[in-house]
Amino acid sequence: MHITVKNSLSIKDSLFDKHVPDSLKREKKGFDIAIVADFNIAGQLTTLFRLINNHTIHRARCIIFQGDYLSYDQDIVLSEDDNGKWEEARQILSNADFFHIGRFPVHDDRLVLHQRLRPNNCVVQYFGTQLRSNAHQIYNWHKNKQITGVGAWDYTMIQHAPFFYHINMMFDSASVLPVSPPQGTIRIVHPTTNRKVKKTELFLNVMRELQAVYDVEGVVIEGKSNRECLDEKSKAHMTFDQISVGIYGVSALESMAMGHVVFGGISNFAASVYPDNPIVWVTPEDLGNKIEYFIKHPENISVRGENGRAWVQRYHDPKKILRQFLYLYDLVRNGHNFMQSPDEQLLEK
Known about the structure:
Blueprint: H1 10-16, E1 32-37, H2 44-55, E2 59-64, E3 76-77, H3 83-95, E4 98-102, H4 113-116, E5 122-125, H5 129-133, H6 135-145, E6 148-150, H7 155-158, E7 186-191, H8 195-198, H9 200-211, E8 216-221, H10 226-234, E9 238-240, H11 250-257, E10 261-264, H12 268-273, E11 280-281, H13 287-296, H14 299-315, H15 318-334
Parallel strand pairs: 1-2, 1-4, 2-3, 4-5, 5-6, 7-8, 7-9, 9-10, 10-11
Helix pairs in contact: 1-3, 11-14
C-alpha cells in the first residue's frame, strides 16, 4: 500500500504515540489519524482506534464529544469538562494527517475540525438516526465537499442519501462466551433503547401469549450498561432484536456471537446485500409463530446459534474490517490504484 511518511515533529510524536505500544513505535511510518464522533457509537470508534495503534503502521487518537452510560473504552471524552482535554483535542486535530468521522462532523468554534477536512484526507462513517433525519442536507454536503461517506446496509438511512459504500460494523466474537444449550425454561431477551421503534410492546404481548402455554421467560433489557446487558444475555438463549429499520446492529451481533437465536425484521434491501444472513426474519404478524417454533424444537436453538456465531466471525471480524478501512483510506488519499498482494505489505503484525 502506498503511504505518505509522516513528518518527524515532536509535538506529533507526543500526541499520536500516546496509545501506541512501545514495541511498535518505530514501525509507525503511516498516517496520524484523528477519529472523531459526537458519540462512541456502540464502541465502534474506540475499537477502530485501538486496532489502528496495535496492528497497523498508522497512529490514531479518538475524540468523542459526549460520553454515555454504556462505559465503552475511551481516549478523550470532551463532555467530561476538562479544559486540558479540549486543548489536547485541538492539537490532535491541528496535527492529524487523516480524519475518520463517526456520523456528521460536529461544529464547534473551539476546534478546527471543519477547516481541516478535504476530499483526500477524510471519510465520514454513518450509523443511524442522524443520517435518517438530515439525509438531503448531509448528502448535498458530501456532493459539494467531495468527501467520502460510508453508509450501512440500511435502506432507511440511505434512501435519500445514497452512500452505497458499505463497511460492516465490527464485533470480536472472542470477547463473549457461547451460552449453554437450553435446559428447562427458555429465556428470551429484548434489549431496547426506544420501545416504540423496537416494537417492545409487540414482544411483550407475544411473550404473554407464549407464557400461557410454554415454559418460557421474556426479559426486557433497558437502562443497563453494556456489561450488564451482556450479563443478562449470558443467561438467555434467544434475542428479539427489533422490527424497525430492516437490518441488525451491534446488539444482534453480540447475541449471535453468544450463540443466541436472533429474531429481527430484515428488509428487501438488506436481503439483497446478505440474502443468507442468519437472523430469523420476522414481521409483526409472524413473530409469535417464529419464536414458538424454537420453543417447540429447542434442539435447533444451538444449531441456529452456531450459524450466527460463525457469521459474526466471518463478516464482522474487527481485523478484516480494519483492513477494509485501510484500503479505503489509501483510496481517498492516493486515488484509484492497483494494489500489491497483502502478503507483501505491512497491514498488521
